[in-house]
Amino acid sequence: MAETITAVPRDGDARIAFRKPVPTDGAPVWALIRACAPLDENSLYCNLLQCDHFRDTCILAERDGQLAGWISGYLLPADPRTLFVWQVAVAPEARGLGLGRQMLERLLDRPECRDVTRLQTTITPDNDASWALFRSLARHRGARLADRPHFTRATHFEGRHATEHMVTLRFSGAATHAA
């Protein structure tokens, strides 16, 4: 059975349910990501695998029963104390409710993330929403935020994609104890 946590958003107009994904969420997640430019689309199969194999480190938000948000992530194989956040998607009609940070908070508070002391993600310089989200999370969790170019436009993307900066949040202890 999927874990479900229900919350009333700040505007009070709808209930938000947060839960782990299941394989049947793969297609709706893929459609959500397609609706959330500038996110890079992955294959439907990739999103299906995320919903199945990585369900413990991914999270969905549903608003009035409709998919409103998604975060994909995984613990680094070589460093299971690091949670890498792959994508954060919030449906256009659900923006402004703070869903991105709520999903991150709930993800970090899961038992599967109890030993996480570091969160990493990559962000392009022009993605203001993602920068604001992770800066907000760092402030709220008392984490130090650092960034550096990681996958560069010339070296890794052959000029077809902006440089991705590796953003690292370091928590003073396990992330679940900082809230």
TrEMBL record:
InterPro entries assigned: Acyl_CoA_acyltransferase, Ectoine_EctA, GNAT_dom
GO molecular function: diaminobutyrate acetyltransferase activity
Positions of the N-acetyltransferase domain: 16-164
Alphabetical GO biological process terms: ectoine biosynthetic process
Entry keyword Acyltransferase: yes
Pathway annotation: Amine and polyamine biosynthesis; ectoine biosynthesis; L-ectoine from L-aspartate 4-semialdehyde: step 2/3
KW Acyltransferase (keyword) present: yes
Enzyme class: transferase
Family of the protein in this entry: Belongs to the acetyltransferase family. EctA subfamily.
Protein's UniProt name: L-2,4-diaminobutyric acid acetyltransferase
Gene name tied to this protein: ectA
